[in-house]
Amino acid sequence: MANQPRVPDVLAAVDLGSNSFHMVVARYAHGQLTIVDRLREMVRLAAGLDERGRLSKESTDRALAAIARFGQRLRDMHADAVRVVGTNTLRKARQKAGFLERAREALGHPIEIISGIEEARLIYQGVVQTTSLESGRHFVVDIGGGSTECIIGDGREHRILESLYMGCVAVSAAHFPNGRIAARSFQNAVVDCAVELEPLQIPFRAIGWECAIGSSGTVRAIGEALREIDPSNSLVTRDGLRELADRLIFAGNVRRAGFATIDEERWPVFPGGLAILTAVFDNMGIESMKVADGALREGLLYDMLGRLRPEDDARERSVRSMAARFHTDVEQTARVEQTAIAFLQQTASAWDLADPLAEQALRWAARLHEIGLDISHSGHHKHAAYLVEHADLPGFPREEQGLVACLVGAHRRKLVLERADELVPPWHVRVMYLAIILRLAVLLHRGRSRSSLPIMRLTAKGRSLEVRFPRGWLTAHPLTRADLALESDYLQAAGIRLRVA
Fold first, then answer.
1. Dihedral in degrees, nearest 10, Cα atoms 270, 276, 278, 282
2. pTM
3. What DSSP state is assigned to residue 429?
4. CATH assignment of 313-500, given 3.30.830.10, 1.10.3210.10, 1.10.10.10, 3.65.10.10?
């Protein structure tokens, strides 16, 4: 299909976080990214999420207004490549399809909901790509509005990724109502955060690190407040956190503490963030921490560059790793992949599949469709789909991972597209046509022969497909002919007409 795309001139990353929304725009020239614009809006989306996972009208209105402003800036700057991700609050929110569709219209780009582990991976990339680091191992913590990510890595490679359902919005709401701060409430907040961190303490400290780094707004705001206390403070320290907490407790709330560097929008969530960072220092035995320049949105920019080079695409590495872990027959899956892509080239126009993700998803599904055999041959397509859907696959947003899982689960037997209705349009429709292509490729290589298939001509039109073989080939291959007859019945039950000639 298309050749490897060129690197865009202007790239943009949008982070729809639980506390604030961020956008960063960069220009790519001479192998370097240069930031040309940043936008930040304090939305506090997490504060509008109720116990049943519903977003309030007030919070969605604030969010959509901010998104509309981001969309205007994106159009003005003519960004060539844009990625938009939603994090913890959008992961937890129910019945969010309407909001996501309105947000997509306002931005002009779809929103990817990423897992906590993927968020941690992108945060680490943003930190190491933009912060001057010494050699050795690094511990990175990012305290967001709805979650806290902890990572250990060597250089640009992460070693361990974790995401906790603990953010400055929820902790502040639970322990500091109306912004009131007392010694007991602060200590209780630190203890509750320590309980969440406890499962990480032994494995993280066993690996160890030379340098601790904090990223994003919470740690940056704490660092600025500490410099206001003592301008010589270049690091966040244990003693500094203690002094900052004492000043807030003495004042009774953030506003009366009189820190010029803590803006009014951050007042309601600042004490929760401070409690989380204090617990991180205590549990991980940290004495001092550097404040990072980059975070999730910078990680998104560099990840976009990596996606333009297959060898650097984290998704490709995840698929290779998963295929190896479950002992797939690489030669067989390569044959299926090659045939599936050849079929895609012939049907892409008629079935509206001329999209780079269509080819990528088909390739990934072909490489992973047999991983369920490592569990059981019976129903192995269902086992494979479950593994793909629920595994931590670095680089994959939930939408893409769900698309691949749906294809893998539909590659044999009855055409059942699990959770297809949860895919963002138009993939909820396209997935059926991609599944048909994959099914035919798998069927034609069922014998696992190394012999090449004949040249076939596929003609797609609406919900019908004609596959034309060279004269006499099907007669010489009666098993394949029988398999195709059965496949025709399976597809007919799903409302698809398959004609073989």
1. 180
2. 0.87
3. H
4. 1.10.3210.10
